[in-house]
């Protein structure tokens, strides 16, 4: 997998720092509020969650809840053995990507999406929570002083890259403006930077193409 300064920063520094910030106010094993809505969407949509992978799961509360319901597999970070082992090719029924794509460097975003596709079964689903702005924008990470670490937002969210491949279709979607403390404490010059979407995409390698006949 390609490497970049931004990706290395999140792997070596910000991943642990984010964990520590989140754990300061965590006293039990209950789901965080933002994970409750993901759990409810997965259950409401009735997608197969027998074998689940979550990229960027933090301390794994959503995975723990799904596993308690019978889900059997878990993994935590994108740059790991799952993506480097043929054992996991076409393996997972459901992959969850909660507010991760925006933090991936642009050098490795396409490779990251390819990695997700390679371990998802044909007929499997991807849950994506991502920004849903009105134009392409980038914001400096305000937790650090380095002026080259950004969050990237694209119109129609990063789910649109999956759709453009022709192998993914939206099965369920919710679009909303986030008024939680995490977003409301961050002020910016465009209200659409606070618009989000939750979307479930289903994968079909051949099913979404109409065959054109020779005449």
Which features would summarize this protein structure in a list?
7 helices; Rossmann fold; alpha/beta; two-stranded antiparallel ribbon; 5-stranded mixed beta sheet; 215 residues; globular
Task: Please characterize this protein's 3D structure.
With 215 residues, the chain is α/β, with parallel strands linked by helices. It has a single domain, classed as 3-Layer(aba) Sandwich (Rossmann fold). Strands 1-2-3-7-6 form a 5-stranded mixed beta sheet. The protein has a two-stranded antiparallel sheet with strand order 4-5. Strand 2, helix 5 and strand 3 form a beta-alpha-beta unit. The radius of gyration is 17 Å and the shape is globular. It starts with a helix and ends in a 12-residue tail after the last strand. The model has no long low-confidence stretch (mean pLDDT 83).
- What is the CATH C level class, in words? Alpha Beta
* Strand fraction: 15-25%
Approximate shape: globular
Give the helices and strands as they follow along the chain: HHEHHEHEEEHEHE
- Measure the end-to-end span: 44 Å
Overall pLDDT confidence: 83
Question: Which percent bin holds the helix content?
Answer: 25-40%
Number of domains: 1
The CATH architecture is: 3-Layer(aba) Sandwich
The Cα radius of gyration reads: 17 Å
* Neighbour order of strands in the largest sheet: 1-2-3-7-6
CATH fold label: Rossmann fold
Which regions are unreliable across 5 or more consecutive residues at pLDDT < 50? Answer: none
Beta strand count: 7
Count the DSSP helices. 7
**Fourth CATH level, the homologous superfamily:** Vaccinia Virus protein VP39
